[in-house]
Specification:
With 215 residues, the protein is mainly alpha-helical.
Length: 215
């Protein structure tokens, strides 16, 4: 049961006056779309007339197998890059449960290191910010099977928990917005790593194909 004293309420107007982390999502997705378009252009070149013309120079099955393997590796690189980059275009689901997940672990560590600058006197960590909701859920479960003589105490505790939830809501909304933008950022960073790997596959596959066809 919560017995917390009323906490300081942050100014919603002050929070709204700050640039929203959601503003960065449009730029991240624009970068992802540009990357997909560039990768698609590479795929068109791989399937264009040049490779088909080079295939005509292959006269034996050994070099045909090498050429086919190289072209397949290059196309797999293109497919891998498009697949991973397109993940950054899918809006992630962001709930309070997301705040405890591994994707935003680095963000949590940053917030928990200096909570005063992010939460003021409302909470000392992300878990502390969320605990009023856990308390309210626990009391609500107890109320479902409580005896009549227990209900009054539980209802008063639930009312206190709801008041604390109201006080922490502005910070939680800001944190969820930040976590949402952070997830998009992490998807884009992951896509960049896969795009680098895909570039290696495309280059290696193209070299193998051209050498096999050149023979």
């Amino acid at each position: 049961m919560s017995s917390d004293q009323p906490a300081e309420i942050p100014s919603t107007a002050t929070l709204d006056a700050l640039p929203s982390p959601l503003d960065s999502i449009a730029d991240s997705r624009a970068a992802a779309r540009w990357t997909i378009a560039s990768i698609g252009a590479v795929g068109v070149l791989l399937l264009g007339g040049g490779p088909l013309t080079a295939v005509g120079k292959i006269t034996d099955w050994t070099h045909a197998a090498w050429a086919g393997g190289g072209l397949l590796a290059a196309l797999l690189g293109v497919a891998l890059a498009v697949w991973q980059t397109s993940e950054a275009l899918i809006p992630p689901m962001t709930t309070p449960a997301t705040l405890t997940g591994p994707v935003i672990r680095q963000l949590r560590e940053q917030l928990d290191a200096e909570p005063w600058y992010y939460f003021g006197s409302l909470a000392t960590s992300v878990d502390d910010l969320l605990r009023h909701r856990h308390i309210a859920a626990q009391i609500a479960r107890q109320l479902a099977s409580a005896r009549p003589d227990e209900r009054g105490t539980l209802e008063r505790g639930l009312a206190v928990a709801h008041r604390n939830i109201t006080r922490t809501d502005p910070c939680l909304r800001w944190l969820l917005v930040t976590a949402h933008a952070w997830q998009v950022r992490e998807k884009l960073r992951k896509a960049r790593r896969y795009t680098l790997l895909a570039a290696v596959l495309v280059i290696a596959g193209s070299v193998v194909f051209l050498r096999a066809a050149g023979r």
